[in-house]
Amino acid sequence: MNANGEAAKAAPELLSPQNARLLLDSTEAFLFDCDGVIWKGDKLIDGVSETLDLLRSKGKKLVFVTNNSSKSRRQYAEKFNSLGIAVSEDEIFSSSFAAAMFLKVNDFPQEKKVYVIGGEGILEELQLAGFTGLGGPEDGKKTVELKSNCFFEHDKSVGAVVVGIDPYINYYKLQYGTLCIRENPGCLFIATNLDAVGHMTDLQEWPGAGCMVGAISSSTEKKPMVVGKPSTFMMDFLLQKYHINTSKMCMVGDRLDTDILFGQNAGCKTLLVLSGVTTQAILQDPSNKIQPDYYTSKLSDFLRIL
Amino acid sequence: MLSCSSHSSRATLSAFSHFLPTTSPYFNFSSLSPKTFSPTPLNFGWRAATAPKPRMASTFPARASAQPLQNADELIDSVETFIFDCDGVIWKGDSLIDGVPETLDMLRSRGKRLVFVTNNSTKSRKQYGKKFETLGLSVSEEEIFASSFAAAAYLKSINFPKDKKVYVIGEDGILKELELAGFEYLGGPEDGGKKIELKPGFLMEHDENVGAVVVGFDRYFNYYKIQYGTLCIRENPGCLFIATNRDAVTHLTDAQEWAGGGSMVGALAGSTQREPLVVGKPSTFMMDYLANKFGILKSQICMVGDRLDTDILFGQNGGCKTLLVLSGVTSLSMLQSPNNSIQPDFYTSKISDFLSLKAATV
């Protein structure tokens, strides 16, 4: 017990030949985050391809769970294929897909529209689910005139605003989203995820959805519904396809407050890789309360260890 | 609604050590509860996420409800200085509100000092002086305190080194004030034209000499600026994160509300996971500054504004009398709503009521 009377969580184990074998034997499905685990921007991380092949050869199911809403599942499958890794659409669970599914399971009326502050991926998933999306990258070109005779119009039939990472963010979109949420009765405010920064390119981190969501939260004074990790919303869809107990799943990610927390919330084993946003110093800092079961420097350590 | 904590944040503050940084309205975001999993609270261990709660009568001695202003003379005689907010009090967009010039003249003729404090950082004090002039009001630059000025004044008050630079996510007003105060700046509206390409091998450089990022309302807001500001705050040791204000929405035109400076600040708070130092209302920085400058006692001041969570809270935090006018963003029903916990001393429809509401003549 620690000072608060809680059962203290054991410190994470560094992945070793012994515990890796145990992990492998007790795991039927590996869930991988993408940015910082599989790739960084458009560059594959060393040894990933061979590691995934190894795991597949041992009969393990591979699932990819990403908070990056800029692409749809189909577009992610294309990205994997272009990097030489064979992955099918239905092995991928992106937060863009999650946003569309959230609207579906909550019976969002089809005559209502969805305003998107985010990428093509969200628009495509909405369309696939039968919804009408407005906004997206196109609105990145629109400007605003702040003159007394210029009135900023917005579609009164927008029933939800979905916010995800948006490199084309601008004042037009902030204003449009703000008006929909503040003025359209019952308008939903959905965030694909809250990641502060991420490896959008191989060389450095870039502002993530947490930034765009922060902007809209501030102007609307409202909290969003979060569909991406660490919310376990996507797990429901995963389980519909893979009838495996979550205790036989291992979530592999580079971020404590999304990937590892998601895994823990869902009852999976968790493995942190240090090839992305988290360093060993951050993991071991006393202020860090999230302890994965295991940690290692990168995914390809499996090749070396097994 | 914003609440203020009352601890001094930095040992380096000189005259303004009791300046109150605004605590974050940044939330615990709730997760969804799909059928098989029970809701799990999101726990971002390193982010102080406290949602301000409405005050309950049982836990605080309830502040008396706002009184409709009946005896204007009594209020006028009881103070030496009137601080006015601008948007929704003096003007709406570019139109003067009825009776304002006569009211200001009357107050001056009774020997009252007039000060204008606005969270709008798009213009400098000099540019606001011109706006007053265009509207036929005689107000001098020295009587105006915009949050653009406050940002520069804050940096001066902490002896921000002249060899460090300031990155600005905001408009011309901030740039002009920084220049007047002798600080070197980067960014501003120009960076609104800069584009980025997220492709392999691309690296955004940033100036390692930036020692402060100032964020305010920015109609030219874009991803380049967010990234530049984020890199400075995260990677330049000791880099300050300063917000001119955190207003959610603002009446930039008189016809409708517009997303305010709070949204740009919220974006940077989201990417850096840091809370800014706020120089505008309801932080008392500007109040302390002008009380110090004019040598006035806070109890001798009446703050007049149209917004509860900035103007009135600013006045209350500063220990002044407060008067809410209903000529701007706040309606009587909003003031009297059970969800509202901010009660000014008085309320009235507009400032020209000072001319009509007289003590009953005997």
UniProtKB/TrEMBL annotation, chain A:
EC number(s) reported in the record: 3.1.3.18
InterPro entries: HAD-like_sf, HAD-SF_hydro_IIA, HAD_sf, PGP_euk
Matches recorded under NCBIfam families: HAD-SF-IIA (TIGR01460), PGP_euk (TIGR01452)
Assigned protein family: Belongs to the HAD-like hydrolase superfamily.
Enzyme class label: hydrolase
Catalyzed chemical reaction(s): 2-phosphoglycolate + H2O = glycolate + phosphate
Protein name: Phosphoglycolate phosphatase
Keyword Hydrolase attributed: yes
UniProt cross-references to PANTHER family, sorted A to Z: 4-NITROPHENYLPHOSPHATASE-RELATED, PHOSPHOGLYCOLATE PHOSPHATASE 2
UniProt superkingdom: Eukaryota
Family matches, as Pfam families: Hydrolase_6, Hydrolase_like
Gene3D superfamilies linked to this entry: HAD superfamily/HAD-like (3.40.50.1000)
Record's keyword terms, sorted: Hydrolase
Organism annotation: Vitis vinifera
Automatic annotation (TrEMBL), chain B:
Keyword Cytoplasm set for record: no
Keywords: Hydrolase
Protein name listed in UniProt: Phosphoglycolate phosphatase 1B, chloroplastic
Provenance organism: Vitis vinifera (Grape)
Protein origin, superkingdom: Eukaryota
